[in-house]
Amino acid sequence: MYDFLMAPKDIEIRDKTRKFVKEKVSAELLKKMDQDEVQYPREYVVNLANEGLLGLRFDPKWGGKGLGWTAEVAALEEIGPLGMSLGCLYSLPSICGEALSVFGNDDQKARYLKPTLEGKKFTAEALTEPRGGSDFFGATTKAVKDGDDWLLTGQKRFVVGAEGADYFILYARTGDASTPARDAITLFIVDKDKGVETKYLYKLLGTRGGGAGRLVLNNVRVPKENVIGKVGDGGKIFYQMMIPERMTSAAGIIGGAKVALDVAAEYSTKRKQFGKHIMEYQGVSFKIADSIMLLDAARALVYMAARAIDTRQPSSFCRRLVSEAKRFATEKSWDIVNMAMQVCGGIGYTQIYPIEKILRDARLSMIWTGTSEVMNLIIQHEFFRELGERKARKDERDVELDANELADDEKVFE
Ligand SMILES: Cc1cc2nc3c(=O)[nH]c(=O)nc-3n(C[C@H](O)[C@H](O)[C@H](O)COP(=O)(O)OP(=O)(O)OC[C@H]3O[C@@H](n4cnc5c(N)ncnc54)[C@H](O)[C@@H]3O)c2cc1C
């Protein structure tokens, strides 16, 4: 139905992913993950790699498919019904791969990107620290030079894949008090077996089974060959990584909301109250109508952001669209899943239907990969910058001159 948003190759990938999701992931695995009986479903990632579904946007030389964001968001919407943990494990090669692909050298691509896309090495992103996640530039994990190596000390938390990853894409502070904040952080590839301690600590509301854990680093030795980009480039790379980080959240959650809506809509055609199917009550069917509209609006924004990135629009404009897509898709998906539960009444609150699980997952989508509040900071910041530029160009109609009463002396601002 939405094929017109995609190129033929995107449709191929979408269909392949749909088939994979239908046939290659057992309900048993999903149940075990939700019961916290699985801490890292490695085989799922291997199977994705074997099907050629990882790293869609990356250079085929390193195992990618050379496609664009529209292919990836189409695939992500299909992965969404598997839940956010499997969505995240699908996305990590894209998120961590972005840093390696855009800023890494050929040696790093050969040692880490290629085996990751082949399902031979497993990656995770370590950004958040116990002291804070929103304030990226406040990171306190320290990297100190020791000969040709770096020694890293500190803690990271909420790292999905902490339990199963072979290596972490990890930010640490290399600058001192005199270094400008934007140059103070460096991105490292840290092999887990070089002394990274992992702790699986959290009883999560949802999004279980991905191994979200704590990393403890105590003088972990990292060779200089594992610095991505240059020392101090962390800030620049962070901005680039936030594109896949937020696009994957936005596109994946649409798939979750879609199936919750499907389940509720079908239920409303079967369930009878007061002698009628509940879909015949506007109180129910209008909730379905609202959900359909919100889902389409979210999808439209996600595809617009995808097209903006693929067609290399200015980075500040892409940043705004990606943030809008992330906030809108996650918040509206939450509303949709919530409405789906309402439509199903009491049974929707039980584990007889999967809506409660989708709801528990969906709550996180507004928190991780940048909270809704952080998205708003970016959206308004980039808009004010654009507004200033547009006003300076003076090539648009000045509508203030169309006001019925022209009285500049009444425009008092201070
Ligand atoms: C299950 C799970 C998995 C995760 N996976 C990963 C992962 O794989 N890798 C990783 O690095 N991180 C991961 N995260 C971390 C996640 O991205 C952070 O939790 C998130 O960015 C928020 O950071 P915080 O929890 O430190 O909250 P804080 O930054 O402390 O924010 C607390 C509140 O303050 C608000 N706030 C903060 N600053 C501002 C501001 N300037 N203006 C307005 N409001 C503000 C926030 O919006 C929020 O509401 C995961 C988290 C969870 C729970």
Summarize this, please?
The protein has 414 residues and is α+β, with helices and mostly antiparallel strands. The protein has helices at residues 8-23, 27-34, 42-50, 69-79, 84-103, 106-117, 234-270, 282-310, 315-348, 355-365, 372-393, and strands spanning 123-126, 142-146, 149-159, 167-173, 185-191, 197-199, 213-223, 227-228, 272-273, 276-277.
Key words describing this protein structure:
single chain, 414 residues, alpha+beta, Butyryl-CoA Dehydrogenase, subunit A, domain 2, Butyryl-CoA Dehydrogenase, subunit A, domain 3, 3 domains, four-stranded antiparallel sheet, binds flavin-adenine dinucleotide
Task: Give an overview of the whole structure.
The radius of gyration is 23 Å and the shape is globular. The strands form 3 sheets. The protein has a 4-stranded mixed beta sheet with strand order 1-4-5-8, with helices on one face. A 4-stranded antiparallel beta sheet has the order 2-3-7-6, with no helix packed on it. The chain has a two-stranded antiparallel sheet with strand order 9-10. The chain contains 11 helices and 10 strands. It has helices at 8-23, 27-34, 42-50, 69-79, 84-103, 106-117, 234-270, 282-310, 315-348, 355-365, 372-393; strands spanning 123-126, 142-146, 149-159, 167-173, 185-191, 197-199, 213-223, 227-228, 272-273, 276-277. The mean pLDDT is 97. Strand 2 (142-146) and strand 3 form a beta hairpin. The N and C termini lie far apart (54 Å). Helix content is 50%, strand content 13%. By secondary structure, the chain is α+β, with helices and mostly antiparallel strands. The chain has 3 domains: 3-121, Acyl-CoA dehydrogenase/oxidase, N-terminal domain (Butyryl-Coa Dehydrogenase, subunit A, domain 1, Orthogonal Bundle); 126-232, Butyryl-CoA Dehydrogenase, subunit A, domain 2, CATH 2.40.110; 236-391, Up-down Bundle (Butyryl-CoA Dehydrogenase, subunit A, domain 3). Helix 9 runs antiparallel to helix 10 (355-365). Flavin-adenine dinucleotide binds at residues 125-128, 132-134, 158-160, 204, 207, 212, 364, 367-371, 373-374, 377.
